[in-house]
Each structure stands twice: as C-alpha cells, then as structure tokens.
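BUG-210 | component: ligand-complex export | severity: low

The export step for thymidine-5'-diphosphate jobs runs without errors, but we want the raw record kept on the ticket for reference. Input record follows.
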Amino acid sequence: MRGLFLVMEGPDGSGKTTQINLLKEYLSQNGYECMITREPGGTEIGEKIRKIILNPQYKEMSPVTEMLLYAASRAQLISEVIGPALEEGKIVLSDRFVDSSIVYQGIGRNLGISTVTAVNAPGIGIYRPDGIFFIDISEEEGIKRKKEQKKLDRMEQESIDFHHMVSEGYRKVLSGRSDVMKIDGSQSIEVIHKKIRNQVNVLLENRWKK
Ligand code: ADP
Ligand code: TYD
C-alpha cells in the first residue's frame, strides 16, 4: 500500500464532513492527489445499500441486518475504490470506517466488538488507516447541529440513550490508540482544521521518509 489512508470518526454532527472537505482543499492546494469517500456509500452498490440502511421507514430492520449491510457497503468500497486508490499512491480521506460499525453496531446495538470486527475482517483485508481523527462531541450538541442542518435519517432518529452509548463508545474504543488523534469538537471549525492539518503534515513526512 503506497498511499495514505486517513479516516474521520465521531458521532453524528461532530463535524466530520466539514473537516474532511477542508482537509481535501488544503491537500489539493499543496499538490497532493487525494480523494474523499463516504460510508455507507461511495460506490454505486454502496449508495443503494445506504438508501436502505438510512431510510426512516425501515423501523423493523434487525441489528444483525444493519451490521451486515454496513459491512457489505464497506467491502465494496474497499475493493472498488479505497484499495485501488491506495495502491496507486493516492491519499484517501474516508468519512467514517470500521470503527463506526464497532461503536454503533458493536456497542450501540449490543452486538459485541468481536462479532463486528470478525464480520468486517474479510472485506477490509490488508487496508488499515494510517491515521484516524476522532472528533469528540456530546450527543446533545451533535444531534442539535444535525436537526438544524437537515431532516434526520433512520440512525439519527434513534433515542438520545442510543446516541449516548455511541459517544461513550467512541471514547472507549478510540482512547489511547497510537493511530488515533482525539479532538475536542466544541472548538471552532478553523481551530479543528488547523489541528488536523498539522497532524496530517506529520503523517505525510513520516510516510515519504519510509
Ligand atoms: P458530521 O459529518 O460529523 O455529521 P457535519 O460536518 O455535517 O457533521 O456538521 C454538522 C453541522 O454542524 C453542519 O451544519 C456544520 O456546519 C456544523 N459544524 C461543523 N463543525 C462545527 C463546529 N466546530 N462548530 C459549530 N458547528 C459546526
Ligand atoms: P453519515 O453519512 O456520517 O451521516 P450524515 O450524512 O448525517 O453525516 O452516517 C450515516 C449514519 O450511519 C450515521 O448515523 C452513523 C451510521 N453508521 C453506522 O451505524 N455504522 C457504520 O458502520 C457507519 C459507517 C455509519
């Protein structure tokens, strides 16, 4: 794998999409070839799966079905987009990756971290993020921002207890890991962007030194 794989993680409304767009702009201005992918989705098949998963009509969807659909969308994205781009030496910026499933399905839906990890393993193969940016925010603030931005999807319409498990789950799963940079999401968009940018520059220096 010759490229650089960077992932944005955090609860709904933490600012992932905002930050990934700013990062892409910064990297492109500095001459790097980079692409953004999103989960669920990012491929023709994945976008169809996304429509099913996030449709608020499907209240009956079982947690296991949900886990498998996210894993299927991810497997397709890796084989069709992320894997080839990394092999070509590109920078891939992904809005969410497998830690979203570990937190939302493993902890939020109570399916267990080991089950979710095992289900996702064949689709992920060798591809591991070089850096994960975890934007930490309270569930109340995140959902408030989402309500102001758009109509809530099936996951966002979940109870505040579910979203509380998600934000606590993120803190548990991503704390203390050397591949994760935790950022306080209550800071301004510009301050967060600068912190991410500085860390990405360090990762880029290390990658190109190797
Ligand atoms: P996510 O992709 O994590 O769900 P978004 O980037 O879509 O989050 O942001 C959700 C909303 O919150 C948007 O309206 C965005 O402009 C706003 N927002 C993002 N970051 C911040 C921030 N640091 N402070 C205040 N509002 C923010
Ligand atoms: P996202 O596209 O980040 O939402 P938005 O478009 O509102 O910014 O993610 C869609 C939802 O899917 C979000 O509530 C988190 C959830 N999700 C999981 O539950 N498991 C997963 O593996 C992924 C990737 C997302």
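Assignee comment: Attached the raw record above. The helical segments are 16-29, 44-54, 63-87, 98-108, 113-124, 139-149, 160-174, 189-209.
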